[in-house]
Amino acid sequence: MSTVATQPGTASTASQTPAAVQTIALQKRIDDRPILRDINLTVASGQYVALLGANGAGKSTLLKILATLIPPSDGRLTLFGETVGWDGWAARRRIGLIGHQSMLYRDLSALENLIFFGKLYGIASPAARAVTLLKAVDLFDRADDPVKSLSRGMMQRVAIARALVHDPELLLADEPFDGLDAPSCRALEKLLAQLHQAGKTVILANHDIDQSLRLSQRAVVLRKGRVVIDQPSQELTPPAILREMERA
Amino acid sequence: MIRAAKQSLLIAAKDLRIESRSRQTISLVVVLGILVVTVLGLGLGGQRPGGPAATAVLWVAYLFSGVLCFEKTMAVERQDGALAGLLLAPLDRGVIYLGKLLSNVVLMFAVAGVITPVGILFFGFDLSKAPLGFFAIMGMSMLGFAAVGTLFAAMVSSSRLQGGLLAMVVFPITLPLVIASTQLTSRLYQGDETWNGSAFAVLVAFDAIFLVVSWLAFEWVIEP
After folding, report:
1. What is the SS3 assignment for A82?
2. CA angle B12, B15, B16 (to 5 degrees)
3. Is residue B5 within 8 angstroms of chain A, CB to CB?
4. Which of A50, A85, B175, B211 is deepest in the core (most CB within 10 A)?
5. Of B88, B95, B222, which to mutate for an interface test with A (greatest number of A Cβ within 10 Å)?
6. pLDDT digits (tens, 9 = 90+) for B36-77
7. Count of CB contacts below 8 A, A vs B?
8. Helix-helix angle B93-123:B24-43, to 10 degrees
9. Which of residues 59-118 of A touch B (CB under 8 A)?
10. Sheet of strand A82-83: strand arrangement
11. What is the model's pTM?
């Protein structure tokens, strides 16, 4: 993948802007079952954070709340210094989410998908932006092919382009490496690093501990919906994280 | 306001483009509608009743076809989590509802455009007596039906009980609409030109109430 163009004036530094994400006593219950408990997390603008935890630890739920897809049951969520209300749609302009699923329309082409989402976000030149992004993820030659005809790796690259179509300041990635082959994984790692260098805040939920520690500046480990580790990645080792994840 | 209208049109246009490519919904729904009219038409013994029973047969076809149509257009959003992509966009969720409603109304008109002539063949309806009245009644009926169907399709699509649940919810709710529409159209078919104000008022009230309530409630029922 080549360099992803970011639109000017969106990169920010930690000293000038409020925290990209701040959660205060955030809780989520589903059918009275606690999924997230008392999450207090502050992510500075421009930080690269790895979110780790076993299956069911609450990583995806936390990302969905941060993306304003679902509301918390209790607590407060602040994005870029603004408290997110019950709908949170103003904040969505600044958030991009790469999920388990592609979030694309299979019967539309990659280009049509990106133009559609670009128009929904109200960006100035959706067609030009779509072309730029498709070139950035090395899929311009497949731009007019229906998404359903693309391989899993290609589809994931279009999904990444979709998440970046509005040039978000906060990128949330929920296990984006799942199902990708080694070259695609490396390309995605590079892309996320480029976005981070361009000043974006990246929160990456991932199963691969080694990879997460290598990529991120800070690791947050969840166990049964609670934050049990929140430290700079370089101070942590995979066995220590694994021990904490496995603790009863 | 204009931006919201543009976004709704964008969503509806996207749905119709997908449908024009895949033709998954329209072909299934049209075949189902024709089958319903044919089976019930033959079951009635080819008596060409032309009255309320024949109009009711048409409505049975619209109802089953409509429910299938609403389910299918929402299933497109569930595939590959596309709905989450829509919900992530900075737009009021009511805008998504209006977009889905618009595409459902267009599809329902297309379906009615095929099913109704089949009904005319079987039951010998004479639409020439009041064509504008017929289109006005059908337009209002389809709008109200789609308003309810779009809301509940969104609600049911996140449930495991998708199959027959939508029909079980939508049919009873649309009963007043079906009764009013059947009364109005059967009068038209029979050449009765007396004005049935109360049935028309039911149609207007049903549309107004369910459009507003569904638009407001969509925010709370739609889940990624």
Report:
1. strand
2. 90
3. no
4. A50
5. B88
6. 888 888 887 755 556 677 788 888 899 989 999 999 999 999
7. 75
8. 40
9. 64, 67-70, 87, 89-90, 92-93, 95, 97, 99-108, 112, 116-117
10. A33-43, A21-30, A74-79, A82-83
11. 0.88
